[in-house]
Design brief:
Layout lengths: L14 E4 L10 H14 L3 E5 L17 H18 L3 E4 L11 H9 L8
Parallel strand pairs: 1-2, 2-3
Helix pairs in contact: 2-3
């Protein structure tokens, strides 16, 4: 079941933009620690992740194997904590998100499985 977008109790709607995670399935804990602190401070009603959701494999032949399993584990690092918070999330892709073996459409299918995803 997807999250519903709605105004907060003050009649406002706050959007927080996060971009360039550029991390992998063993994401640095400081990345989400910082994002959580921002969420605590700004209390967004929607989080928009605006691309470069994983690290680039450009020029790194040994990392071009990144398939569905690898990408899912990478996205779990930041989507699972957002799911736990219950905040709706919308995503777009950046240039690094095209690297690897999985298309943006395939990546979108993975994102769509998270309960907080509101992207279509």
């Amino acid at each position: 079941m997807q999250k519903t977008l709605k105004f907060n109790k003050n009649g406002k709607f706050r959007i927080m933009q996060v971009s360039d995670f550029q991390d992998g399935p063993t994401q640095r804990y400081l990345t989400m620690d910082y994002v959580r602190k921002c969420i605590d401070e700004y209390k967004p009603d929607l989080i928009v992740i605006t691309g470069d959701n994983k690290f680039s494999t450009t020029g790194t032949e040994k990392l071009k194997f990144m398939g569905r399993y690898f990408i899912r584990k990478t996205y779990d690092c930041f989507m699972k904590p957002l799911e736990e918070l219950g905040i709706p999330v919308a995503i777009v892709f950046g240039n690094h998100d095209l690297d690897g073996k999985i298309t943006r459409r395939g990546q979108f299918e993975i994102f769509s499985e998270y309960s907080v995803c509101v992207s279509e």
